[in-house]
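Known limitations

Structure tokens in this collection are predictions and should be treated as such. Users comparing against experimental data should check residue numbering before alignment. To illustrate the layout, the record for S1 RNA-binding domain-containing protein is reproduced below. The input appears on top and the generated tokens appear beneath it.
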Amino acid sequence: MHQKIGTIQTLQVLRQIDTGYVLENDILLHHNEANIELTDEDTVEVFLYQDKKGQTVATTQLPTIQMDVYGWAPVVEVVPHLGVFVNIGTTKEILVSKDDLPLFEDVWPAVGDELYVTLGKDQKGRLLAIPATEGVLERLFEFAPENILNSTVTGRIYRTDREGSTVITEDGYRGFIHHTERKQEPRLGEHVEGRVIDVKEDGTINLSLRPLKQHSMGEDADAILAHLEDNDGVIPFSDKSDPEDIRDTFHISKAAFKRALGKLMKEKRIEQRDGKTFLL
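Generated tokens:
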């Protein structure tokens, strides 16, 4: 009967027992999992899963997600080195294995983030939640109109790597956030808000999670001042520094760094000497 777990089935009640009902194929529907009173020979629609002992059991609380049926599932628990558990709309929470999550746990989903998943099984026949591939998500994508350029959109991160993060917006547009357009890497499943900086011919969009230049200059200047204060008023950076070194330390582009330095020098809060920046 293991092949039926993760699916919704209509089964007949064979008999009642103290703990609940025995359905055909000797599947137990516990009283706690039955939302209706049943009698012998009634038929009932149930979702099948395995309990902790590995037995196939039933619930009348039918999930939105099952084998080959995808949906958004909120993360309810994160277990380091194992994976995250998601709520698929039934009583049993399902594991998304670490094998289907990013290599680095700091970009794993947090509680409340959502993943677009279906159900599958591991080698022992136990239920797992499997995140959707790009090919599956393509069915959801809408063609983005040109007039959304510079507008703000929200969406969920469904893929993340060093090059950037990929998002599906609430309107169904596929968006890409290049690593230079974010101060930190968003988590898989995180809800983000970004600005549309490019609408491609194929109907996809590029997003930035960074504020507009006039807003970010003040934030970047504050970050430089904080760094100076933490390092006895001197840092080995100037407007001639290597762009990669700047990005590794401040998570901003060299152009943004130079703008922030210029602002601070104009305000006479810093000075540059010998390739270093000093707090005044």
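For this record: The longest strand covers residues 8-17. The chain has a mean pLDDT of 90. Please report discrepancies through the issue tracker.
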